[in-house]
Write a structure and sequence with these properties.
This protein is of the alpha/beta class and 466 residues long. The protein folds into two domains: 3-221 and 416-438, Aldehyde Dehydrogenase, Chain A, domain 1, CATH 3.40.605; 226-406, Aldehyde Dehydrogenase, Chain A, domain 2 (3-Layer(aba) Sandwich). The chain is built from 17 helices and 16 strands. The strands form three sheets. The protein has a seven-stranded mixed beta sheet with strand order 10-11-12-9-8-13-14, with helices on both faces. The longest helix is centred in the first third of the chain and has 27 residues, at 66-92. The termini are far apart. The chain binds nicotinamide-adenine-dinucleotide.
Length: 466
């Protein structure tokens, strides 16, 4: 875009935001009933379009099994809406909190109120879920929202724009389609909150732009999520789960297992189980019109070059199936300087990394940027406790992969380079609300006596220093 177009784009988006603000100022703050109606309308629109989601996702990914779209992409949105619909009343009620004795019998409450207009920026990998769940959360918290879906899934973005335009007034929900330039303009708008899902690299730019307007951010970013297999791990289950994690959506999942840490004496055994599971998962997906394609030729080339670099560097590359434009592949013998060791993979390549001691495995996890998710397979309680204590990551699933995402009552988010803030359920409601502290002074209390110049000021001073 040249500078005239950028100015035009800025003006266009600023006008949408201004219209939303104006509406917010002139209309009453949505109460529980109207927020529930909004959630119900969104859910009804999603349900009515379920086949369209499957079809347009196929267009964007080239191939994508219906299940990847229904169960992993839009299913969690409907579940999330149900959860919010059920609990919203309790979350919205002012929350009474204790007061210090000196202020007794005053009362203190936290009131949660809408922030105003939330900007939502979404990635392409789950183009519906990662747009609509943040949107539902913004509406549950009583906000208006502008959504910018990803240009890499244009058919999905189009469907979202049409569906949301049919469901909501543009002064409540507006979709802005466009690429990086539009994203840059979008991130620079003076929202009341900016909710970004995408890469760490772009997240950094978005946060910088938001800082210009002091816009608070939630950043849902990526990273390398390890699977740690203890020696007592159920290898059969782990192999099946990991194969699912790498084949579902062709491994293009933010919380997909990125690599596996296996004890050096178990490696052979584990790989012997993993190989057929990877092939099986790909074959099953293949029968259902998948596995999902890699989103673009550029992304497929990137994955191929990661694999090629490892091969040239002496790693062993085991391809496990024919399906897919990048085949599910196991890679053994990575070196520290290889890109597969350093970069988030985001595709169906699975490095298997060996460790000699648990200390070494934990230290390896701690030596990189904080992962978005961590998976541990063990039946040993002490070891679970130890790994939970000694590693810092986003969420954890024990003896499984990715399932924590579906637990709406868990805050979902990263830490460090994998993100800032969290959402899902109550955590999302709170992230998109202002927590206003309200204290009401009682008619009679000790408060006037304890102020500077008051009768009991010495007593108070002593009491407060106690
Ligand atoms: P991305 O960061 O390239 O794009 C995300 C959004 O930002 C898109 O809407 C894009 O148009 C926009 N954008 C791109 N460049 C921009 C710029 N310079 N300024 C402003 N906006 C810009 O991410 P992606 O490739 O779409 O998604 C993959 C990444 O997202 C992976 O790293 C993955 O781990 C992460 N991710 C995280 C989560 C999570 O919940 N934490 C979920 C899905 C994906």
């Amino acid at each position: 875009m040249d500078s005239d177009t950028v100015t035009g784009e800025t003006r266009r988006l600023a006008a949408v935001l201004a219209a939303q603000r104006e509406a917010a100022a002139s209309e009453v703050v949505p109460d529980l009933a109207s927020r529930r109606t909004d959630l119900a309308r969104l859910k009804a629109a999603i349900r009515a379009h379920r086949n369209d989601f499957v079809a347009v996702a196929r267009e964007d990914f080239g191939r994508r099994p219906a299940e990847d779209t229904l169960i992993l992409d839009i299913g969690p949105v409907v579940q999330g809406i149900n959860h919010m619909h059920r609990h919203l009343g309790a979350w919205m009620r002012p929350e009474r909190v204790p007061v210090p004795h000196t202020l007794w019998p005053g009362r203190a409450h936290i009131h949660r109120q809408p922030l105003g207009v939330v900007g939502i920026m979404a990635p392409w990998n789950y183009p519906f879920g990662l747009s609509l769940l943040p949107l539902a959360t913004a509406l549950a918290a009583g906000n208006r929202a502008m959504l910018k879906p990803s240009e890499l899934a244009p058919a999905s973005s189009r469907l979202l724009a049409d569906l949301l335009a049919d469901t909501f007034e543009a002064t409540q929900v507006a979709v802005v389609e466009g690429g990086v330039e539009t994203g840059t303009v979008f991130a620079g708008l003076p929202f009341d909150h900016l909710f970004f899902t995408g890469s760490t690299e772009v997240g950094r730019k978005v946060m910088r732009a938001a800082a210009e307007n002091l816009v608070p951010v939630t950043l849902e970013l990526g990273g390398k999520s390890p699977v740690l297999l203890a020696r007592d791990a159920d290898f059969a289950k782990a192999a099946r789960d990991i194969a699912f994690g790498k084949v579902a959506n062709a491994g293009q999942t933010c919380i997909a297992p990125d690599y596996v840490l296996v004890h050096e004496d178990d490696t052979k055994d584990f790989i012997a189980r993993l190989k057929p599971e990877m092939a099986r998962a790909a074959k099953i997906a293949g029968r259902r019109g998948g596995p999902a394609g890699i989103i673009s030729a550029r992304h497929a080339e990137r994955l191929a070059s990661l694999q090629e670099e490892a091969r040239i560097g002496g790693a062993v590359v085991i391809e496990t199936g024919e399906e897919g434009n990048v085949t599910p592949t196991i890679i053994i013998g990575l070196r520290p300087q290889m890109r597969l060791t350093r970069e988030e993979i985001f595709g169906p390549l699975l490095p298997v990394v060996t460790y000699a001691t648990m200390e070494e495995a934990i230290a390896r996890i701690g030596s990189g940027p904080r992962p978005l998710a961590l998976y541990l397979y063990t039946a040993n309680r002490d070891l679970k406790g130890r790994v939970l204590r000694d590693t810092l990551s986003g969420n954890v699933t024990l003896n499984g992969v990715m399932t924590h995402y579906a637990v709406e009552s868990l805050p979902f988010g990263g830490v460090g380079a994998s993100g800032i803030g969290a959402y899902h359920g109550r955590a999302g409601f709170e992230a998109m609300s202002h927590a206003k502290g309200v204290f009401e002074e009682p008619r009679r209390s000790l408060i006037p006596f304890g102020r500077p110049g008051g009768r009991f000021v010495k007593l108070f001073a002593r009491y407060m220093m106690r």
